[in-house]
């Protein structure tokens, strides 16, 4: 088992991060209401690009969390990788540090702008390029999912505890797949239709999707990046992986190899599968590979 640095008390660390997360929730909920007003929306949305918007909510949460981490935890060596600061911070990451905070202040920005409620805040503490602690905050559902490296649980803002409940479905055709609302492609749609899952749920935010698997509402999620197209990044998967692994599920590449973080450009290309049972996960990946090959859907 990984242990946080000797100068850090794990229980206090988690307690501090819970407080910070709920402060972030207040910011996100405030802007989620303000953005419904078209006049305010034009002030809140800051476009980095047509397919990559950023909002004041992203920036405010980013500022809050980085500030709090630096104030509270200056006694051990770490770096902070954030989606909003990646161009500034990536060149200054501590190459000798075992510990790396990985932050996505607002995962599912398009859903946030659209008002669906399917957005989340991701915060992970990685040890040697693997997620150790993970926090996935879903403000619209009043849920904060926490992984401490051993177990996972959810909490509401008033402290009510939520338990993980992975479903027991083991066969692909009996599974409910959860798929993206704003990041869909024909290849993935063809794969999903070919497998003929029992049910398909469409939802934004990887954090929301993985939390749905942790709660037992869905069984599997597939991320498929087309060659030459954009790919998910470290901050999309680190915290969600932490909570799903602690719950007993798994997230790997399609060949069942673990995700390794802090690689070139922080990208996670190709096909990534998240499922509800780590013991069954390898077989599920193998079955998907066979379907892809038999139908010539993707270069493997």
UniProtKB/TrEMBL annotation:
Q: Which is one GO molecular function term here?
A: inositol monophosphate phosphatase activity
* Cleavable signal peptide: none
> What cofactor requirement does the entry state?
Mg(2+)
The alphabetized UniProt keywords are:
Hydrolase, Magnesium, Metal-binding
Q: Which InterPro entries match?
A: CysQ/Inositol_MonoPase (IPR050725), Inositol_monophosphatase-like (IPR000760), Inositol_monophosphatase_CS (IPR020550)
Q: Where are the transmembrane segments?
A: none
Q: Quick one: which residues bind Mg(2+)?
A: 83, 104, 106-107, 236
Name the EC number(s).
3.1.3.25
Which GO terms of type biological process are on file? Answer: 3'-phosphoadenosine 5'-phosphosulfate metabolic process; phosphatidylinositol phosphate biosynthetic process; sulfate assimilation
Can you name the source organism?
Answer: Prochlorococcus marinus str. GP2
Q: Which PROSITE patterns match?
A: IMP_2 (PS00630)
Name listed for the protein in its UniProt record? inositol-phosphate phosphatase
Looking at the keywords, is Magnesium present? yes
Instruction: Describe the reaction catalysed, as an equation.
Output: a myo-inositol phosphate + H2O = myo-inositol + phosphate
Looking up Pfam families in the UniProt record yields: Inositol_P (PF00459)
Would you say which domain of life the source belongs to?
Answer: Bacteria
- At the top of the EC hierarchy, this enzyme's class is hydrolase
